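Protocol step 4 of 6: structure prediction from sequence.
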Amino acid sequence: MPHARLDHDELIAAAHALAPSIRDAAAGAEQARRPDDGVIDAARNSGLFAMMVPETFGGHEADLDTFFEVTLILSQADPAMGWLLGFYIEHNYWACGFPASFQKELFADANYCLAPATLNPGAGSAEKVDGGYRLSGQWQWGTGILHADWVFAGAMVADANGRPSPQFFALPIDDVEPIDTWFMAGMCGTGSWDFRIDDAFVPDDRVTPMLELMNASGEAAELYDGDLYRTPLIPILAFAAATPMLGAAKMALSEYQSQVSAKIVAATEAVGGPERTVGKPSVAARAALTIEAAELLIRQVLAEVMEQRNAASIETRSAWQARMSHAVFMCREAIQDICSVTGASGSRLDNPIQRALRDITTASNHVIFDREVRYADYGRLLTGQPIQNLLI
């Protein structure tokens, strides 16, 4: 049922209340290769899914800073579930870029939707027909497909001049076939299966130009007053993907501190006091400082995005993505450092530190964090050359 509108502090409190159940279910979700049903139900009841939905539909219309803090809390409990829940929340922002008539249909019975979304327009093709399109294709990385109500898929459409134009399509889950391809080394608990669409009809009002969505220049910016709806899509997507990586690093550090404390207690009880330093404090310190620096960098980008929104230049948006990518790999390197000083127990599959390493190693390969591409463009900016990656 729809919740009363929750403010920033109430949404933060809801995330803290949800986190223990996420933490308890993390190992089982990884082994099952899918999200825990009970956690999804608890998340529905928390009200968090409606965070980015406009108030006119009963949503909370929260801004990007609230989204960041909530996702960080959830991700420190379990990075994979923080990733999944963050994407569920953020995909409701994507929904606000569709025509108003479809938004009224989408939010008629609930103040949120649960939908995977893929920007890859090359995975599908659509043909214009009377009243809409016929859409076919198979898309990877369907994060959220296992509990979805809708699916958002990108595909190419020929414009009036025959040139390919990327469009974004919304389909009910009954028109989609989930395909279990999720045999992964990390992020197993997200259950991000492929999905296939076979010649489905999509009405015109369930289609929106992808570039308008990416630049926050379409329906949402015209319909709603909140600053969130004038924020480009890719920076929001970057926070949805990067924040769980920061959460993984902070979780790994916290677990390391707890495990070292337990070893100190055991040594004290065995011999009346520790005979040597437990672990390698200098390595742990380096990891902690690296995580702290990564968080500061992410929060700096957050402040700039919220200040500039879609008024930011292409160059500024490119620099944001380079800095976010750099912060993600700082977090990955910090977790690797932590794993190097946990001893043999750090390689146990049930050790949360090991799970953090598996998750960040997998998730940091997301296309939005392509480090070499992001660094190359940032170097071009530093030397007065034009950028090449337009996924910004």
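Step 5 (inspection) to follow. The CA atoms of residues 50 and 59 lie 5 Å apart.
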